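Notes from the pairing session

We agreed to fold both candidates in a single pass and log them together. This is the raw record for the first candidate, unedited. Please don't reformat it; downstream parsing expects exactly this layout.

Candidate A
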Amino acid sequence: MNKKKIAQYIDQEKLFTREDKILVTLSGGADSVALLRLLLDMGYTCEAAHCNFHLRGDESVRDEMFVRELCLQLEVPLHVQHFQTTEEAEKRHISIEMAARELRYAWFEQLRLQQGANVIAVAHHKDDSVETLLLNLIRGTGINGLLGIRPKNGNIVRPLLCLDRKEITEYLQEIGQSYVTDSTNLQDEYTRNKIRLNLLPLMQEINPSVKESLLRTAEHLNDAALLYKKGIEEGKQKVQTEQGILISVLLQESAPETLLFEILSPLGFNSAQIKDIFTSLNGQPGKIFLSGEWRVIKDRELLLLEPICSEDVSTVFSPDDPALPFRLTMEELEVTDDFIIPRDRNTACFDADKLKQPLTVRHYRQGDTFVPFGMTGRKKVSDYLTDRKFSLSRKEQQWVLCSGSHIIWLIGERTDNRFRIDDQTQKVIILKFIPYERGLNHFFRS
């Protein structure tokens, strides 16, 4: 193998220097073994890291033993970590593959810092990049998913991206270096293996140089992606506000659905969901779309983006409670002849003797009722808020102050008539709702 080709690639992509210590991720397979041997042959200082995920029984034990013997022969410091991957995946409700990926990269970075290594070298090569591009294309992706695997991502470097699988195995044959084979790579159980074993050979029948064509396309897209990213960021600045996405402004963009995809996909929404959300923009308000941790609400003029909150509970009220996203102050006064009842929405006055302590604060709930000030009959809080033309999201974010089981105040809105001041009132309680300076939208559910 021409080591000059790899050296030029390392210099061209500025992956690392001769003075750097390199932490090589070593599985025992052909790619990682070749990576370690090449870097050592080229004079780099290396340490190796091996993960045993305990997913393949005797093969996992075999791989670890092979790696230990190899590093002993090469006089390379080796670090081994064992993971209970299946249990971790079940506990976190993610796939085994995702659990293994997150576990190993977290450990690699921890180890890099402990050992004073400059970079973590992984053994991805050209074929991996092609497979990743096709995998993303099949699943549905934005332009970034069509760029293949990048040579550097933070402290992760990939020196073998200039080589294909055939060049790597030929190099190992030349130097007489053995390696282990993961039997699952020979099965088409997983999507990536189906691409490697079935789809790519079929594509090569149509175009023998299809891998090179795909990689060239990815390189062209890399420059296009820089312009794309700039345009997306400019679009986000136009359409996003603290309240949500301005629908009318979004629809005026040259590629509104694409812009919406780039805003929502990082929040866990897939392509089909985002298409449904885009279709809803000209429909009636009130439709809700959910991802794992976020929801989108189609309002009249906005798409509201909110984290999905845990179930609300009542909190015993205390003045200036730091747990509340606003301030509530309370004052108790004797009624005098010159007492004037405040009339603004942010101040509430009650007959102190009609209240049951302690007062509690919570969010409005479906089914809540109260008797609006000046009326004698009960009204659903939801109907009152609808009359006030509140959006679904704004309704859910309405705070209420309660005395026992009764709502006495829709905070910042209206008090309950049953607790009003009358001719028999001797003491009054005055509560003031004081918004923080960040603006009304921050007073509600966070």
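Candidate B (folded immediately after A)
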Amino acid sequence: MGRQRLGIFGGTFDPIHNGHLMIARAMQEQLGLDRILFIPDYIPPHKQGWHCSPSADRLAMTILAAAEDPRYTVSAMELERGGVSYTCDTLRQLHRRWHRFYDLYFIIGADSAEQLPTWHNIREAMHYATFAAAARPGFAPQKEKVSEDLARQGLRNLVWVDTPELDLSSTEIRGRIRKGEPVDTMVPKAVAEYIEQRDLYRQ
């Protein structure tokens, strides 16, 4: 068997929602990814001091969402490692373990692509994986400029993947739940049921 392509999708996933899954599908189709590994983070570097739901709940919801596709798997590696979840540390670990079998693609949003120069050890991280940025339709005109700005700083290992527009955010979903509004069209059914059972996001 030849080399395969592994997509790595990190995030707080508080909760994971249909927008995340739609990005995963677009990445899979356009980059020919064989598998996608979802990794809930412990403390997101750009959100330090921000309070998120317990790790066990975020992990459980991610596992439920990933069960929808046999090519999706979930890793608790950042939760087990603890501390600030730096992408470079995670990619170093994955590269060490998988580089003989997989080419790694690290999935990010378009907004994150613009922030890459501020990321911890970003040059080393780009040595381990190609960064795949989700470009929603409204972002298309900026792609070239962002790529040029990054290239000037020596950050070239980036590809753009066109993704559909789906205006969904975990913040909005948590807000709707607090107000007692339905979210069943925004998250997978199993995730909606889990949120209900665990009474998450009510306060």
